[in-house]
Sequence to fold (244 residues):
Amino acid sequence: MLERISTGISKLDELIGGGFIKGRTYLIAGETGVGKTIFSLQYILYGLKNGENCVYVSFDERIQNVLTGAASLGWNFKDYVKQGNLIPFEIRLRTEDLRHGKESKAFINAIARYTRNKPISRLVLDPISALAQGAGDLMWVREYVREIVAYLEEELGCTTLVTCDIPTGSNSLSRYGVEEFLASGIIVLGLTRIDGKHVRTIYVRKMRWTPIDMTMYTYDIVPGEGIVFGPPLSELLKSASGGL
Ligand SMILES: Nc1ncnc2c1ncn2[C@@H]1O[C@H](COP(=O)(O)OP(=O)(O)O)[C@@H](O)[C@H]1O
Ligand SMILES: [Mg+2]
Fold:
């Protein structure tokens, strides 16, 4: 039996057979502003409340801004940081360093140093797409991500969430292909217009070794709770067209 951990969203756990498989890497994809960072924080918070140690790595926003933003949702991460249960990282990469393989080693060493003697169960890399900004050759980005994810899975044994920005209006799931290739599962967040209003959507695109319910659901972002599932999108569309 594969051991599973909760995503932090009970309805989502139901759709994917009980949660994420422990020790694997999952991708949360979607355009900017759909809720990927909030999803990741909710995932981490569930673990922290459960007494677990977690690592959150920000590749685009200042970590202080992320924690302050979380407070606007009623989530207090700062105490967990003080107690050492949440280890926040902020990483900016230079193309040169990527090319020489320096950064992935520096990153791995830093994580290893901070997590020494401390089992880490949940880790978030948010958003991995920021790594490739300005990178001339995506091969180095792929190599970087591959090395880090291999290390995390083999050495730390934690369950990892990687988020990726999809370019607005694009159908592709990720920018570089590498994330889809590495991920054990993919969850896609999006926005749809109904009657002139934007509705948030979520569906499970892939889950290895898991029978899944691929229904596209709607959701809201609710202070204090985070991502809260609503009815399937098809129901909203039916009632919208029924009203015509
Ligand atoms: N305190 C809040 N209450 C309700 N909704 C919020 C709150 N903070 C942010 N949001 C919603 O979350 C969205 C941003 O989510 P975020 O996870 O940062 O997106 P992404 O990481 O995908 O770019 C905002 O556009 C806003 O609609
Ligand atoms: Mg974000």
Q: What stands out?
A: Residues 36-37, 126-127 surround magnesium ion (ligand 2) (CB under 6 Å). The first strand starts at residue 4 and ends at 5.
